[in-house]
């Protein structure tokens, strides 16, 4: 038995090399081929026939022709100035935004060359100007400008996050205003220092606003956690546009000359291009954060199918998407988001003090984490009213949504003239968002809206609707306190 087992093992060992050689010959008869995409180039690999190598070899490729190299230039430019896989890693509004921003930056850099020429010309016109005095004036105007920029940033603070579009437009207007002041300095060389310092303050305001708001835009573009890549490419785009704009400014400077009228005329054309391009780029961006204006646009659309004189929802409209809201968002002149919002007949105040509210308001909204009250607007000559909305210190994002849902509903009734000031508060109790325990219908409406908001593309975890944190807390009265005699 033992001999038989040994014979079988020897036979198997002898037959294994033959089997392996047969398989190896089969592989040799079927050479492998493979391809690999490496950046914008594609490589081909194969196993040469008859080769015993266990690795793939690169197939010989011919040197790309001149025509192929020219066709690859757009791909190289994409690598330099656009995020990797930008067609899938960024939102659809990214490329249009970049195009308009590039045009705006070129126009702004060209204006900068013309304004610098005017500044140098003005400082040389000062009576008795010497190099040391000129240098001192230059340093002082830079120092004052930087101090003004720091002060501005401390005053605006978190409003950059709430309304980046508006502050980016402020940045554009400030930059053009500063450039215009610099261009006009040759007309008043004796006032070079105050004019140049004022212009530098405006420039620092522009730079701070632009850099602070850029992060919000980049965050909205990022689709694959590639915020850093988008930010880096934005720097490359800015440098390239600055180089192009500077070259263009140097080219047209001899044509324009040093006459202030000619420089101002050229500035007018370039400023129009700059502002229009900035506006177009911002109108394309669809932000996913909710400030007061965007939230009210969403709620207004939600209530469009509602019969404003009843408390029954006639048509449950879907929630507007960020791109749909962006098409209706106003960020120049009209609707000051982050400030008391003024409509035709009502204004909204979100940071009123408690002493402006009546005690019955506290009783009316005892079961809510917000207070709502309507008063006459004494500053208005058209009989307008002020709607106060105050949030409780423990109010969550859901409570904020409920409060603004109620606020917009009440404002709509006031705008239509269905409520008098005396009846506004009583009516609001039976309107969109009456007390939670009042009726099941009101609760279902609020829940319906909030659930749709949470399921939408909007970022509802942190709402940017409060310019100033003015939340209230009601404390229990001290019954042991000594009463005044």
From TrEMBL:
This is Vitamin B6 photo-protection and homoeostasis-domain-containing protein. Residues 319-465 form the Root UVB sensitive protein C-terminal domain. It comes from Aphanomyces invadans. Residues 73-304 form the Protein root UVB sensitive/RUS domain. Belongs to the RUS1 family.
